[in-house]
Amino acid sequence: MAAACAAAGESPNVLKISVTPTDDITVNGAAVSLGQLDSILSKAATNGEEIWFHRLLNNKGSPASAKILKFAADNQIPIRFAAKSDFSDIGKAAEILSARTLVLFAPRPDYPQSAREHGTGGGGIFVQHVDRVTGSVTEVTVERSAGSQLLDSCAIEALRQWKYKAPAKTEKVKIPITFGARNGKVSY
């Protein structure tokens, strides 16, 4: 894989996997089969490569997407998600990774009754600062407010309690949180 990466002008330490709505798979720009994916992921994990993954929202249940996410969960390997299919956004997110595969304890934020009664809701993005040695969250900052100081405070309070597998693979984790005014639920 390193030779293929070098030939394509890619760093051999970065594996970029893209899955189309028709379940076509590319790795660093080269088409691969579903059967080849296991060995590619295993080699990447063994070599300590960063694994970046892009998929469209409407193909979450595809066999390829499921295989990639299961591999990451089973092997406790972080998968970083690229928002853009050309991976042009990954440089901006080098320390941000998918928290779901690494988190041990993740309490959901409270949605105060007073906010629900007044129809106060919104979505925000919060950044957890993680102690790499212990996996504990040391600080939570607001990248984008949920639209209310009360909702931001509830999100921060819950996110400070999260615990990651130690040693933590990163120092920063972005968590989007939505307080749904219509359904009264919190999602992240």
Distance between the termini: 34 Å
The H-and-E topology, N to C, reads as HEEEHEHEEHEEHEEE
Which whole number gives the mean pLDDT? 79
> Helix count, per DSSP?
5
Q: How many beta-strand runs?
A: 11
Strand content: 25-35%
Radius of gyration: 18 Å
Largest sheet: 5 strands, mixed
Shape, per Cα inertia axes: globular
In helices, the fraction of residues equals 25-40%
Unreliable spans: 1-12, 92-97
Structural class: alpha+beta
Strand ordering within the main sheet: 3-2-1-4-5
Task: Give a short overview.
Helices cover 26% and strands 28% of the residues.
Word description of this protein:
By secondary structure, the protein is of the alpha+beta class. It is globular, with a radius of gyration of 18 Å. Strands 3-2-1-4-5 form a five-stranded mixed sheet, covered by helices on one side. The chain has a four-stranded antiparallel sheet with strand order 8-7-10-11, with helices on one face. The protein has a two-stranded antiparallel sheet with strand order 6-9. β2 (about 25) and β3 form a beta hairpin. Residues about 1-10 and about 90-95 have low confidence and may be disordered. It contains five helices and eleven strands. It has helices spanning about 1-5, 35-45, 65-75, 115, 150-160, and strands at about 15-20, 25, 30, 50-55, 80, 105, 120-130, 135-145, 165, 170-180, 185. Helices cover about 25% and strands about 30% of the residues.
Strand and helix layout:
Blueprint: H1 2-7, E1 14-19, E2 25-27, E3 30-32, H2 34-46, E4 50-55, H3 63-75, E5 79-81, E6 103-105, H4 113-117, E7 122-130, E8 137-144, H5 149-159, E9 163-164, E10 172-179, E11 186-187
Parallel strand pairs: 1-4, 4-5
Antiparallel strand pairs: 1-2, 2-3, 6-9, 7-8, 7-10, 10-11
Helix pairs in contact: 2-3
